[in-house]
Amino acid sequence: MRGINRSKIKIGILITVFLGVLLGVLYSLLAPVSNGCVMTYMYPTYIPITSSESVSPAKYALYLYHEGWKKIDYKDHLRKLSGVPVLFIPGNGGSYKQARSSFLHDMRLFARIATWYLVRSVAAESDRAYQSGPLERTFYQESSLSPEEGGLDKNISGFQLPSQYTSRLDWFSVDLEGEHSAMDGAILEEHTEYVVYAIHKILDQYKASYDARIREGAAVSGSLPNSVILVGHSMGGVVARAAVIHPRLKKSAVETVLTLASPHQSPPVPLQPSLGHYFARVNSEWREGYKVQTTNTRRYVSGPELSHVVVVSISGSYNDYQIRSQLALLDNIVPPTHGFMISSTAMKNVWLSMEHQAILWCNQLVVQVSHTLLSLIDSRTGQPFPDTQKRLAVFARMLRSGVSHNFNRMMQLPSSKQSMHVPGQNTQDATGSLVHRSVSCPPNIRWNEEGLDRDLYIQTNVVTVLAMDGRRRWLDIQKLGSNGKSHFVFVTNLEPCSGIRLHLWPEKGKSAPDLPFNDRVVEVTSMMMRIPSGPAPRQLEPGSQTEQAPPSAVFWLGPEDMRDFKFLTISVAPRPSVSGRPPPAVSMGVGQFFNPEEGNKDLSPWFMLQSVYSQKELLLEEAHPLAVKLSFAVSLGLLPVTLSMKAVSCGIKNTGLPEEEAGDPESTNLCKLRCFPPVALAWDDTAGLSIYPNLNTETIFVDSTPALWSSTQHSEKTVVLLLVDPHCSYKSSFSVSVSAAASRLLLHYCPKIVGFSIAVIFFALMRQACLWDAGLRIPSIFIGISLICYIFANGFVAILALISHLVFFVAAVTHIFIKTRWQMWEQNFGFIFLRWFVNLSSSFFSLKGVRVLRANPVLVTVAAAMFFACLVHPAFGLLILLCAHFFFCHNALCSFLMASCRNHEQNGNLDSLSEVHNGSERPRFKFDGSFDRTFPSENDSSNTRDSSKSFSDSQLDAFHHRHGLLLLHFVAMMMFAPSMVAWFQRLAIGKSLPWLLDSTLCMCIIVNGICNSKPEFNSFFLPIRGFPILKVRLYFLYLIAGYCSYFAGLAMAPYVAVYAMAAVGAISFSLRMLQRRNRDTKQVTYGSRKRH
């Protein structure tokens, strides 16, 4: 009894914790998110592309987008097609248009409107970008291809982005009727078929337009496009990749694929087996497509089929709850030489995390994507570059930022592959050898070095720039970089070349031309890396000093960069800007020679766990390193940390202010005038860089999913680099956000929880089968469940079991109450009509056909479930099986309660108890839901092989056994629920048969529910010639299925657990048939011997 109470206490605590965490998750998910995006506005016109071919004409459609409010002639516009075709593929529930008149439209209106915005916003911005020209060139460090991506290729070393756009982008879009493609693999197959047709139709339309212009004698320039650029959002990106490997797609019809928030590794809802099979097949064909084609004897046949295809994936980072960066990765699908993934937080000129739908209309991202696609066009041909490395280099330079490209080297992380080099270009000298020369500022931005007022010689390891004073500051590298301070970091809001310049000098001189050629000064201005800056500084009071400006660039030199140099100079331009633009209102620049080891702060797991209930503080004294590296032992993708930075002093000792005034409002305002706002740079191996400018109090996230089989070695940690003013002291506080941590845990590991929940049920069924074989009582499904996996899986199963127990108990008590009061109500005149209805029902049930069906309820259940699973939808077949489970459990529980009540009434008279056991009759509950008025004996009705068990115990055991199967098959049905939603949506437009894989697996699960409907079916006796009778126990199968489900959860592929359920059903059916065959064989043999 004490053990049972302990189990109940454990289950109560488990459920309480589960519900508390679930409430925290809901609070975090429902809280509004501010992403900082700007809306994109447009004036759209959609031109239908008609076709004479019968390729789903009434279902899907193809449109051409036109930007502008003026009315145009559709046919004339199509004849003028001469740009680069781009096809947009919407995602789950998305379409090109805004509204459609149908009942189901209200269910997906928001998703369709949001997706409709992408083709409008990107097309509108690409049209504006084409008219206004490329983005204004800046001289910050640009990203480049890594050696693994082919960055050492000589053809790429001197490649430059186009200086003007020569061709516009023609945006096409497919209307996929807003179908929920993320829920059904069959829908993805149909979308892929139509996208292949749309690609061919677009290319044919350009050919027809070109021929029409030639016939009319119009001027024809450029060449016909041979390929279409595919841009897909969400599941549209998956469809785009599937279309590339479609056997009917023309070769080289698609060479560039750009996906936005698309899952590539696995389905976002990995529940349906056919959906998982679809992803596995597509990814497998992509892996094979990048391999050299050979024969079985390793003889060369042809090059890789996909060698011409470049794929770039953009994720929305931590604010995208639907598609995480882990799903958007291209690792092990596309080689680094042909594609990469980048998060929106690490994108140049974007730096924002956004929701799944916001990525469609966020103007910062849309503008950058538009200019990127236009930069892919070769100015000589008017079509995209045919060379894959050039196209990949365009994506890298236009999307990646310099700081994300060099963060690993700056932090000296183990994943760093090479040291940072001075940006330059490869040229040939007089001997023809390749020489690397640094890139200087362009000649049109040239300073008159004689115009510098006078040089300043810095004597401390900290240098400060407070104004555009036109001076050059000299820093002695050997002197200031001594005592381990071998690194130099500099932050500023001045632009490179036009506002500030940095040089490395081998020796002190007045000007660079005075030095010999071999000792020439190296300009390193182009090593400045741009970072997002916060809001512009403001005045605290009218006429007062303006606050310190936030930095917009960071410059980093390591000891390998300063080797063989003696001096570093920082030249600031005079206030009149040389580029014609007004200088910033407030100029700032702070640099420091520092020792990285002094700024390393390791935060242990215990430190982070303690910050859950109490804030932990970290004090940075004055003269601290400008770059402070915080190493969190637990990934901030799992435990987001709320970081608060407060300046408590800013050189107060030197200003004469008393120390006790540090931290009061007056000193805080003073620090805002003297200290630049802190900046946090968080790095994750999967999602990349996330930057938090003007750090005051922020919850720092990274979109990381640690503790996976595919996770990298250092994914369980997060590195945060703080750029803080060394003139000031800061009090930083850390606290783990419980609600944010709970939401991240549930979002990242929901598929794992589903797989573990199935494993929990399998292990419970295994325990039941073991106890039955031992002749012991079978406990309830939720009593004794141990913490074998994550607490959420156990909590979910426990709550599901409790709710179902409560429902069964209430239904049984209500049924018994009505039946026991029936005789009292029969004489009531008010129930004459009810008696007439019961008699009429009895006459109906007396029909021969109905009697046959009632006599074979199992056969009826199997036939109906199989019919719906094969011809309608698998979820309906499982629903019928659940109904059979429900009625059986209800019958067993009612019989148990009636027998218990009967025994309780008879316990008062011990003499009559023996008589009751010998001749009285107990209640029996039929399948049709009615009680007989007689009570059969226990020996006639017992379902157990052990006659010592009472009738009530046998009924209770049968209830618990079937209840466990009900929970297992309920979870299986819920795994097909998303697909059923898509099935309901497609009723109005026609629905094809379910996938054979899904139907076959569901048929095996249905067989499992029928073959193992009673506890005694947990064991099978199989006689084999030459061996003693073999006893096969199902608990061993449940054990194996439980471990399969457990590992499926670890792999974030819970749909694999459906295969385990189906395997148990198939094996159970086979054993049942073998046992029946052996039994029939024995009966035939015995009958033949008797006749003899």
TrEMBL record:
The keyword Coiled coil does not apply. The chain crosses the membrane at residues 12-30, 746-765, 774-793, 799-817, 829-847, 859-888, 965-986, 992-1011, 1032-1050, 1056-1074. Residues 924-949 are annotated as: Disordered. It comes from the Eukaryota. Residues 936-949 have a biased composition (Polar residues). Pfam families: PGAP1. Residues 81-375 form the GPI inositol-deacylase PGAP1-like alpha/beta domain. SUPFAM superfamilies: alpha/beta-Hydrolases (SSF53474). Its EC number is 3.1.-.-. InterPro entries: AB_hydrolase_fold (IPR029058), PGAP1-ab_dom-like (IPR012908). Keywords: Endoplasmic reticulum, Hydrolase, Membrane, Protein transport, Transmembrane, Transmembrane helix, Transport. It is found in: Endoplasmic reticulum membrane. The keyword Membrane applies. Involved in inositol deacylation of GPI-anchored proteins which plays important roles in the quality control and ER-associated degradation of GPI-anchored proteins. Belongs to the GPI inositol-deacylase family. This is GPI inositol-deacylase. It comes from Stylosanthes scabra.
